[in-house]
Design a protein that fits this description.
The chain is of the alpha/beta class and 302 residues long. The chain folds into two domains: 3-128, Rossmann fold (3-Layer(aba) Sandwich); 146-282, HUPs (Rossmann fold, 3-Layer(aba) Sandwich), CATH 3.40.50. It has helices spanning 13-25, 51-71, 86-93, 118-123, 156-171, 185-189, 195-219, 234-241, 266-271, and strands at 3-8, 31-39, 77-83, 99-103, 129-133, 146-150, 174-181, 225-231, 247-252, 278-282. Strands 3-2-1-4-5-10-9-6-7-8 form a ten-stranded mixed sheet, sandwiched between helices.
Length: 302
């Protein structure tokens, strides 16, 4: 069954990169791509007609079709114009998709439509997996053929590891499971951690990591799986290891990214500035819905 991919587009450079990323995905599996633009009207005076400005959004959709068909000849693309706030409209749209793809920056006359924080807003609301593609991404960008997954200590990571393993197997990549842990500053200052306690904590975290590694190897016997365990800041470690990865996968509780990864600017670092695409896997991927275009004719065929 084809993978249903929704790509958000505002006509800017980051959107174009996201579209090319989705088109490349069509090389590895059957896909159905829908380009979605979100028409915002709250900037207009009450009662004002938005129709004269609609051609900008429809133009972004036409460009999206050209990008997809150029990057992946033979891959069809549908175009849908939605209305409302980008966060709300795309969260709703994700109910009808297997994958939501957005760019990490904006550079267009519709700048207000896709702020750099959109990925953070959608991370806890998407009903399907979401991939954020940095504007710097290139198909021939020298990636090292590795998929990295950030492992936490709760159930949210199980779905992320499973999805990362599936992606690695389909793409013929290595899988690298990364787990980082830290001790609260108050505890370290108070010198409450003895060498024995430290060793016990490290052993417990090592067990969490190896359980994930063994599960991935058992379910994907041909997959090359490596692991890293380290004490320290999770985002710094993940960012270093995934700097040239093909994909970074993280989990979510539908209330934000994996707990230890949401600290200050860390979410921004991972979801906006990372030099590789990042897949956010929701903890409850149950979804089924349909897309409702703004007006008749706003949805175009292939």
């Amino acid at each position: 069954m084809p993978e249903r991919i929704i790509v958000a587009t505002d006509g800017g450079a980051a959107s174009h990169t996201a579209l090319r990323w989705a088109a490349e995905r069509a090389v590895t599996r059957p896909v159905l791509i829908t380009a979605v633009s979100v028409e915002e009207t709250d900037w207009l005076p009450v009662g004002a007609d938005a129709t004269p400005y609609r051609r900008a959004y429809l133009g972004a959709l036409d460009t999206a079709r050209i990008i997809i068909e150029t990057a992946s000849p033979g891959t069809g693309v549908e175009r849908v114009l939605l209305q409302g706030s980008p966060e709300d409209a795309l969260a709703k749209a994700s109910e009808s998709a297997d994958l939501l793809v957005i760019g990490s920056k904006h550079a267009s006359a519709l700048a207000n439509a896709f702020h750099s924080t959109l990925s953070l807003q959608l991370a806890s609301r998407t009903r399907c997996a979401m991939v954020v593609v940095p504007v710097e991404w290139r198909a021939d960008g020298g990636v090292d053929g590795e998929i990295v997954v950030a492992l936490d200590t709760d159930e949210s990571s199980a779905d992320a590891v499973d999805r990362a393993a599936e992606e690695a197997e389909i793409l013929g990549c290595r899988l690298h499971i990364v787990h980082s842990w830290s001790i609260p500053t108050t505890v370290t200052i108070g010198e409450f951690i003895s060498p024995e306690s430290y060793d016990s904590l490290r052993a417990a975290h090592h067990e969490v990591l190896m359980d994930a590694v063994q599960r991935a190897r058992a379910e994907h016997p041909t997959l090359h799986v490596s692991q890293t365990l380290q004490v320290g800041d999770p985002a710094a470690l993940v960012g270093h290891i995934a700097a040239h990865a093909r994909l970074l996968v993280v989990g979510t509780h539908h209330r934000g990214l994996v707990g230890s990864l949401v600290l200050g600017s860390v979410s921004h670092d991972l979801l906006v500035a990372m030099p590789c695409p990042i897949m956010v896997v929701p903890g409850d991927p149950t979804h089924r819905g349909t897309l409702d275009p703004v007006v008749a004719g706003a949805q175009a065929g292939r």
